[in-house]
Amino acid sequence: MQPPIRMYATATCPYCIRAEQLLLDKGVVGLDKIRVDLDPSRREEMMKLSGRRTVPQIFIGDYHVGGCDDLLALERGGRLAALLRGESA
């Protein structure tokens, strides 16, 4: 069963767009995309949770993936599918 997936993003960030497209290509349903450009308090929330200022910041269940490059590395390493099934990283 797919865990909840949350991505902090902005509308114009090419890395956010690329990360979202990869997740959709992997069959993710119900992506919770949080637009920090529309609500600055959500950026503060993102920074507290991730320790990072940049977008995207992606969480699969309770696991902090990181940004787009981190997501792509999981995919290249063959570990993204397991995370999306709710298995540990």
Automatic annotation (TrEMBL):
<dbReference type="InterPro" id="IPR014025">
    <property type="entry name" value="Glutaredoxin_subgr"/>
</dbReference>
<dbReference type="InterPro" id="IPR011767">
    <property type="entry name" value="GLR_AS"/>
</dbReference>
<dbReference type="GO" id="GO:0005737">
    <property type="term" value="C:cytoplasm"/>
</dbReference>
<keyword id="KW-0813">Transport</keyword>
<comment type="function">
    <text>Has a glutathione-disulfide oxidoreductase activity in the presence of NADPH and glutathione reductase. Reduces low molecular weight disulfides and proteins.</text>
</comment>
<comment type="similarity">
    <text>Belongs to the glutaredoxin family.</text>
</comment>
<keyword id="KW-1015">Disulfide bond</keyword>
<protein>
    <recommendedName>
        <fullName>Glutaredoxin</fullName>
    </recommendedName>
</protein>
<dbReference type="InterPro" id="IPR036249">
    <property type="entry name" value="Thioredoxin-like_sf"/>
</dbReference>
<dbReference type="InterPro" id="IPR002109">
    <property type="entry name" value="Glutaredoxin"/>
</dbReference>
<feature type="domain" description="Glutaredoxin">
    <location>
        <begin position="6"/>
        <end position="65"/>
    </location>
</feature>
<dbReference type="GO" id="GO:0015038">
    <property type="term" value="F:glutathione disulfide oxidoreductase activity"/>
</dbReference>
<dbReference type="InterPro" id="IPR011900">
    <property type="entry name" value="GRX_bact"/>
</dbReference>
<dbReference type="GO" id="GO:0034599">
    <property type="term" value="P:cellular response to oxidative stress"/>
</dbReference>
<keyword id="KW-0249">Electron transport</keyword>
<dbReference type="GO" id="GO:0045454">
    <property type="term" value="P:cell redox homeostasis"/>
</dbReference>
<keyword id="KW-0676">Redox-active center</keyword>
<keyword id="KW-0963">Cytoplasm</keyword>
<dbReference type="Pfam" id="PF00462">
    <property type="entry name" value="Glutaredoxin"/>
</dbReference>
